[in-house]
Design goal:
The complex is a heterodimer. Chain A starts with a strand and ends in a 6-residue tail after the last strand. Helices cover 16% and strands 34% of the residues of chain A. Chain A has helices spanning 42-45, 73-80, 114-125, 166-169, 185-195; strands at 4-14, 17-23, 34-39, 52-60, 63-69, 84-87, 104-109, 130-136, 152-155, 162-163, 178-182, 200-204, 220-223, 226-229, 236-238. Chain A has a domain at 4-87: Beta Barrel (Elongation Factor Tu (Ef-tu), domain 3), CATH 2.40.30. In chain A, a hairpin with a 2-residue loop joins strand 1 (4-14) and strand 2. By secondary structure, chain B is of the alpha/beta class. Chain B has nine helices and 13 strands. In chain B, strand 4 and strand 5 (71-74) form a beta hairpin. In chain B, helix 3 packs parallel to helix 4 (147-160). Chain B is globular, with a radius of gyration of 18 Å. In chain B, 55% of the residues are buried. The chains are: A alpha/beta, B alpha/beta. Chain A binds chain B through residues 1-3, 42-43, 46-51, 74, 207-222, 225-227, 232, and chain B through 30-36, 39, 50, 56, 58-59, 61-72, 74, 76, 79, 216-217, 245, 267-271, 273.
Chain lengths: 244, 298
């Protein structure tokens, strides 16, 4: 896997999350795709050994950004990076956008809001009407919601918006021709149920990954008859394809 | 490849069982997807796709991988579409270099049938026997459980594929005795070594995370010793590997006695082309060609 050293453009704290943007001179970043990223020098120290997968949060004027929460050593080192980080080129299969698809509902849970920012940008650019619903644990994680003007918010501890899950804050999803969601698997399974089988339902999964290019077969999700790799066949899947 | 050699002024080619490889690097089985082939054009001297089995295997449920210090533990479960689909798809792995096919079965008969099936195909330059899977006829011990088990399966495969170069892939445990057995049963080369049985635990959830095989730089010294020990025991060539992450690592495995060096887990975190470039630089400084390096410990 090829990694590129890229310059950090900006680092911002959004409550419990970090927003890190970097100069990306390569191919255009499409909503729903991801990169493997790590702090510069990791392959020399060999610990942590693997890079981490991140959905693109946004892409504007040659700057790509990632949204993450510090969960372990890999993200802690990324969080401390000041000048450069190392990233792959954009990977995976992103969101399908259907310009004739009608109104879209976007649902994000926790750090799963990450791919929705760039998706909102793309939908707006194409004149596709959409509603955004974001669910968080508490008042530390909800801070990023300020970056989504007009979004409906829910928190599990009731510190902001609806007291409950993102689905508690959303209206009847079956009324939406298009539904996009990203978050923990339990949330995605609930969205799949709530949205019903009609229309375009796309789920972006969050899986641990080894390589990011299909080689290690580590990041699989269940489909009828077996497993597929979320890094190559996903991370965005049609809801009906996933055997949840 | 020729361009690369001219550019570096270094002879990277090696000879393995009568097959000329443009570089001594070969992917370890199960670490190179066809989607990633574009990144390694001109880097590997042969391509070695993920192990194939008689019937399709869905593989193990996730989690399948866990990061460890300087490495990772994986438990994929040989997910693959089965040998027939695999052979239909084999052209996808054609980068203009030889293709080595890795096979695994649950019985000696499975292995022999696979060898017969793939050896008849002109696109297959050699067969690697993945002997670290469970032998269902022997209570789930692997085909690498001891010299008798190794000899049985290698002899059956030899008879099933009498003319195709046959590599026996061995685990580090008991590797010297197993290497001797594989050689006497007719293996043309030995792949040393496979991942090391390992376990990771999620303390927070108080549960097993992944029970599988450890790979990556953490295992390198163990693999080097295995290659070194085997090289002093057998006459057949060795495909060495285990934690190879840099060009100097490649040189170390060749010095220990490997003719060809397998790159696996490192390809998830590095561009294998950089490893080859580092190896070329090593050779240039040493004033040696790749083929001269095998066993050239002072």
């Amino acid at each position: 896997m090829k990694f590129h050293t890229v310059e950090i453009e900006e680092r911002r704290e959004l409550g419990a999350y970090t927003l890190l943007s970097y100069r990306w001179p390569g191919e255009k970043v499409e909503p729903g795709r991801f990169v493997m990223a790590r702090a510069a020098g990791c392959p020399v120290t060999l610990d942590p050994f693997l890079a981490r997968p991140f959905s693109f949060y946004d892409f504007e004027d040659g700057a790509a950004s990632l949204l993450f929460e510090v969960r372990g050593r890999g993200t802690a080192l990324l969080d401390r990076a000041t000048e450069t980080i190392e990233v792959t080129a954009p990977l995976g299969r992103g969101f399908e956008i259907d310009v004739s698809g009608g109104r879209a509902a976007l649902l994000g849970g926790g750090i799963g809001v990450a791919p929705l920012k760039i998706l909102v940008r793309e939908l707006a650019a194409r004149g596709i009407a959409h509603d955004v619903f974001l669910g968080f644990l508490d008042n530390r994680t909800v801070a990023v919601a300020a970056d989504f003007p007009g979004a409906t918010v829910a928190t599990m501890d009731g510190s902001a918006g609806t007291h409950g899950t993102v689905l508690d804050a959303a209206p009847d999803l079956t009324a939406y021709p298009t539904v996009y969601a990203c978050g923990p698997n339990a949330m995605l399974a609930a969205v799949k149920d709530a949205a019903g089988p009609e229309g375009l339902r796309q789920l972006s999964v969050e899986e641990r990954m080894g390589c990011g290019n299909g080689s290690c077969n580590g990041c699989v999700v269940p489909v009828d008859g077996g497993y597929v790799r979320s890094c190559v066949e996903g991370p965005v899947f049609r809801a009906e394809a996933l055997a949840w | 490849m020729v361009v690369r050699e001219r550019a570096t002024g270094v002879d990277l080619s090696v000879e393995l069982c009568g097959i000329t490889l443009s570089t001594p690097l070969v992917p370890a089985s199960g670490t190179l997807a066809k989607e990633a082939l574009g990144e390694v054009d001109g880097v590997y001297g042969a391509i070695l796709p993920k192990t194939t089995t008689p019937a399709a295997r869905v593989g193990n449920p996730p989690p399948r991988v866990a990061e460890t210090p300087a490495g990772m533990v994986n438990s994929i479960g040989l997910q693959n579409p089965g040998v027939e689909r695999f052979m239909e798809d084999l052209d996808a792995f054609d980068l203009g270099v030889p293709i080595f096919v890795s096979v695994a079965g649950e019985t000696v008969r499975d292995f022999a049938a696979l060898c017969e099936r793939v050896s008849g195909d002109g696109r297959v330059a050699a067969i690697e026997l993945n002997l670290s899977c469970p032998n269902v006829e022997h209570g789930g011990l692997t085909f690498c459980a001891g010299p008798a088990a190794v000899e049985d399966v290698v002899a059956a495969c030899r008879a099933a594929a009498p003319t195709k170069p046959l590599f026996a892939k061995l685990t580090h445990e008991g590797v010297v005795g197993n290497a001797r057995a594989a050689e006497s049963a007719g293996a043309d080369a030995l792949t040393v070594m496979n991942t090391i049985p390992a376990l990771t635990i999620d303390a927070k959830r108080r549960s097993v995370l992944v029970r599988g095989g450890l790979s990556g730089p953490a295992v390198k010294p163990i693999a080097l010793k295995a290659v070194h020990d085997v090289a002093r025991t057998v006459r057949v060539p060795i495909l060495g590997g285990g934690g190879v992450t840099s060009g100097v690592d490649v040189a170390e495995f060749m010095l220990a006695g490997a003719t060809v060096v397998q790159v696996g887990t490192a390809s998830f975190v590095r561009d294998p082309g950089e490893i080859l470039a580092e190896f070329s630089a090593y050779l240039r400084e040493a004033g040696m060609g790749a083929a001269e390096l095998t066993g050239a410990l002072r």
